Automatic annotation (TrEMBL):
Transmembrane segments: none annotated. InterPro entries: CobQ/CobB/MinD/ParA_Nub-bd_dom, MinD, P-loop_NTPase, ParA/MinD_ATPase. Keywords: ATP-binding, Nucleotide-binding. Residues 1-16 have a biased composition (Polar residues). Residues 57-275 form the CobQ/CobB/MinD/ParA nucleotide binding domain. Pfam families: CbiA (PF01656). Signal peptide: none annotated. Belongs to the ParA family. MinD subfamily. This is Putative Septum site-determining protein minD. Residues 1-29 are annotated as: Disordered. GO terms for molecular function: ATP binding; ATP hydrolysis activity. It comes from Tripterygium wilfordii (Thunder God vine). One of its GO terms (biological process) is negative regulation of cell division. It comes from the Eukaryota.
Length: 322
């Protein structure tokens, strides 16, 4: 009687037919992981400051509500955490918000207007952050107040020169939070700057204003202009409902400093007066701001990559070409 059950025979290697063939386990190629390890080691060191100090950087956009003040607060504190001395100037006259995002609204007693009028010294108008002593805030004016008629770009240039001569030493970075629009406040804010960070969102209205502001910055002699794309949603990019970062970069033709994803934690941190970069554990938007600050220190930029589009759902009749 024949049995239908047979024992499985071992695979035989044609090179040695008498020995069973044992499958070989493939080991990962170490060269594929060398880039990730290299970048991890790079971010564990302190970045090398490029350029002459102080680096006067204006953060602008043209359109309001795209995240200029949020970018100023988070990048400023990220620079302070990296060990650099930072002075952030809120140049929005009458509508200042930078002190709220930093949680310093109750400590602003003097502003630049009082300094110019001789009512106080410059060091009295500087508000030092208690969390990071190398970060200071300077407001142009108090809410609902008007600037004197003589205040303009020359006054802000004098202010920057006075910051360079501080007894404690010249700061490494002077960040100027520029007001929205392209009126006199914008012209005043960009006058002392030699670098610019353009904040935009991937929508048509913000991009048109950003393109206009880029031309004005170049006319003012600011050639070093980098871009931060804020509130990016990869799900909408895959569904072709939002322009990709690569499309934004091709439209504006600017170097990319950072890409900030959409994050609901931004509203919570704003209401608490606690910037994203100080959150533990860090959020994706907070990490993106820290990486943008790192690139700003070394005058580096990043490269945008194309996000694969979401494959469209195919129905039953698509088999027949429908």
């Amino acid at each position: 009687m024949l049995s239908l059950q047979t024992q499985p025979k071992p695979f035989l290697n044609p090179q040695s037919p008498l020995k069973p063939f044992t499958p070989r386990t493939l080991k990962p190629n170490k060269s594929r992981f060398s880039t990730a390890i290299h970048s991890l080691l790079q971010y564990n060191r302190k970045p090398q400051l490029a350029g002459e100090t102080p680096r006067v950087v204006v953060i602008t956009s043209g359109k309001g509500g795209v995240g200029k003040t949020t970018t100023t607060a988070n990048i400023g504190l990220s620079l302070a955490r990296l060990g650099f001395s930072v002075v952030a100037i809120d140049a929005d006259v009458g509508l200042r918000n930078l002190d709220l995002l930093l949680g310093l609204e109750n400590r602003v007693n003097y502003t630049v207007v009082e300094v110019l009028n001789g009512d106080c010294r410059l060091d009295q108008a500087l508000v030092r952050d208690k969390r990071w002593s190398n970060f200071e805030l300077l407001c142009i004016s108090k809410p609902r107040s008007k600037l004197p008629l003589g205040f303009g770009g020359r006054a802000l240039v004098w202010l920057v020169d006075a910051l360079k001569q501080k007894p404690e030493g010249c700061p490494d970075f002077i960040l100027i939070d520029c007001p929205a629009g392209i009126d006199a406040g914008f012209i005043t804010a960009i006058t002392p700057a030699n670098e610019a960070v353009l904040v935009t969102t991937p929508d048509i209205t913000a991009l048109r204003d950003a393109d206009r502001v880029t031309g004005l910055l170049e006319c003012d002699g600011i050639r070093d202009v980098k871009m931060i794309v804020n509130r990016v949603r990869t799900d909408m990019i895959k569904g072709e409902d939002m322009m990709s970062v690569l499309d934004v970069q091709e439209m504006l033709g600017l170097a990319l400093l950072g890409v900030i994803p959409e994050d609901s934690e931004v509203i919570r941190s704003t209401n608490r007066g606690y910037p994203l970069v100080l959150n533990k554990p860090p959020t994706l938007a907070g990490l993106a701001f820290e990486q943008a600050a790192w690139r700003l220190v070394e005058q580096d930029s990043m490269k945008a990559v194309m996000v694969e589009e979401e494959p469209k759902k195919r129905g039953f009749f698509s088999f027949f070409g429908g």
